[in-house]
Write a structure and sequence with these properties.
Elements (H helix, E strand, L loop, with lengths): L10 E4 L6 E3 L11 E6 L6 E2 L5 E2 L7 E7 L3 E2 H12 L9 E8 L4 E8 L7 E5 L4 E4 L3 E6 L1
Antiparallel strand pairs: 1-2, 1-8, 3-6, 4-5, 6-12, 7-11, 8-9, 9-12, 10-11
Length: about 140
């Protein structure tokens, strides 16, 4: 167990076709809303029998899901965050990328191939004179394949 490493952060994105990792700065996260479900169990064709007993077929493969929201964020910071994510896309169409994340179960880092689901943006304020946009918190998720 290596423990948390501030140089790696909670989650980092691997730049596509490189060995370079880019940490997602904690400034872009409401840390108190950072949510990770490591090693989620997957079932295939599980069912309840006639007595109502659940018969599970748990697969060996497990997946991790990570979600966080940003604080209210200006367009320049949001663009920087989105660039970190999109620079990792190995498949732009499916938003496929590789991440490294801190796993609380093992107190160490793991890597996973994930996709980033569509992101919704909700504008809080536009300052046309300064050409800035303030967005309400934005939800980012990474879901492992």
């Amino acid at each position: 167990m290596a423990g948390y490493d501030s140089t790696k952060g909670l989650v980092s994105v691997q730049k596509a076709n490189t060995t370079t990792w880019v940490k997602i700065p904690l400034d872009y996260m409401k840390v108190e809303e950072y949510k990770i479900t490591p090693d989620q169990m997957l079932d295939l064709d599980s069912y309840r029998n006639e007595q109502g007993v659940l018969l599970r077929n748990c697969l060996d493969h497990k997946v991790t899901k990570i979600e966080f929201t940003t604080p209210p964020i200006y367009n320049t910071a949001l663009n920087a965050l989105l660039k970190i994510i999109s620079d990792g896309y190995t498949n732009t169409k499916s938003h496929r990328l590789k991440i490294r994340y801190y796993d609380m179960y093992t107190d160490d880092y793991k890597e996973g191939t994930v996709y980033c689901p569509d992101i919704d943006f909700n504008i809080n304020h536009v300052d046309e004179a300064k050409k800035i946009i303030l967005y309400n918190p934005v939800r980012i998720a990474f879901i492992e394949y």
